[in-house]
Design a protein that fits this description.
- By secondary structure, this protein is an alpha+beta fold.
- The chain folds into two domains: 229 residues, Aminopeptidase (3-Layer(aba) Sandwich); 72 residues, RNA polymerase II/Efflux pump adaptor protein, barrel-sandwich hybrid domain (OB fold (Dihydrolipoamide Acetyltransferase, E2P)), CATH 2.40.50.
- Helices cover 18% and strands 35% of the residues.
- The strands form four sheets. The protein has a six-stranded mixed sheet.
- The longest helix has 17 residues.
- The structure holds zinc ion.
- Zinc ion binds next to loops.
Length: 325
């Protein structure tokens, strides 16, 4: 990895463009901000714009650049506000236009795979390889209504999982979701790949419909700052989160059974019960052609709001609370 076109905007704050060694990434420059504290401490890496329409997350990554003062910072903060640069001005949902892959589910990647796989590998093993803390900001794509929730990856190691849950609790979320250890087996989110490396990371979500809303921006910004404070990178104290999150240990997706139009009156944040009909599919004649039922009892973490859906498209994300909570 090299840093090109470096400009020091003020002492300890550098705007730079990252380039990577993989031939698949030749010519690809990734804007990045490096903030170096005057005292030693941990390294925090923050990404946004893996999904480019999740603009409250991107706005938060922009605001965070002005939220750390080198004179008051212990350690360093590196921020990539838009990971999926090829998608940015295309407003592409989910995918990287170069190879049609979803960066979010391609970690840890590989240096000799496709563009997306090479990018994931470079982010993980070059840019963030020395990161003690990693935060990937998301939420609210063009057709999504997303509640405030934070994911972390469970591994089965109770001590490490407790640390990651504590990191997730820095965000003022309604739900904290510990992803099932089964995710560790295949390509997946950056936080999952980090957990496989024995490292930490969290993935907060908030927002809707490709709109910058101040509430979601503040949720992301305050959560990252609280995390930095928790790990002694900045002075505090910072106010505790106002919400008491429901902790979930399973994350289920409910998919559309057929092509058609989805009708639903269920919103993100609502509780649903196993087997409850949460959506109905109809055709252009208004004839009901299928239904979506809740796969288990839990809470709607997000839902798709555009009615036109393909068979197999995920329509709802459901978090199932830890038993006995
Ligand atoms: Zn996303």
């Amino acid at each position: 990895m090299k840093r090109t076109r470096i400009s020091e905007v003020s002492r300890g704050i550098v705007h730079t463009y990252l380039t990577f060694d993989s031939p698949l990434l030749r010519g690809y420059e990734l804007p990045c901000v490096e903030i170096t504290g005057e005292r030693p401490g941990l390294r925090l890496c923050v990404t946004a714009g893996v999904h480019v329409n999740e603009v409250s997350a991107i706005e938060a990554a922009v605001r965070l650049q002005g939220s750390f003062s080198p004179s008051a910072l212990r350690g360093s903060v590196s921020i990539i506000p838009v990971v999926n640069q090829p998608a940015l001005y295309e407003h592409t949902e989910y995918m990287c236009p170069i190879d049609g892959k979803n960066i979010n589910f391609s970690f840890p990647g590989r240096p000799d795979g496709t563009f997306t796989e090479a990018l994931c590998h470079a982010l993980l093993y070059e840019w963030a390889v020395d990161a003690d803390l990693f935060v990937d900001l998301h939420g609210g794509d063009l057709r999504e209504e997303v509640s405030k929730f934070v994911m972390f990856q469970r591994t089965g190691d109770a001590d490490l999982d407790a640390v990651r849950e504590e990191m997730a609790r820095c965000f003022d979320a309604n739900f904290v979701v510990g992803l099932e250890p089964e995710h560790l087996g295949g390509p997946g989110r950056a936080i999952t790949a980090r957990a496989r490396m024995g490292r930490h990371g969290v993935m907060p979500e908030a927002g809707q419909h490709g709109v910058v809303d101040s509430d979601s921006v503040a949720y992301h910004v305050q959560g990252v700052l609280r995390l930095a404070w928790l790990y002694d990178m900045i002075e505090g104290p910072l106010p505790s989160p106002a919400r008491r999150p429901t902790v979930c240990d399973r994350y289920l997706w409910a998919r559309c059974p057929v092509d058609g139009f989805l009708r639903t009156s269920v919103h993100s944040g609502e509780q649903v019960t196993r087997g409850q009909r949460i959506g109905v599919m109809h055709d252009v004649f208004g004839i009901v052609i299928g239904e979506i039922v809740a796969p288990d009892t839990g809470y709607v973490l997000w839902r798709m709001t555009h009615p036109v859906m393909r068979a197999g498209d995920s329509a709802f994300g459901i978090g199932c609370p830890v038993q006995g909570q």
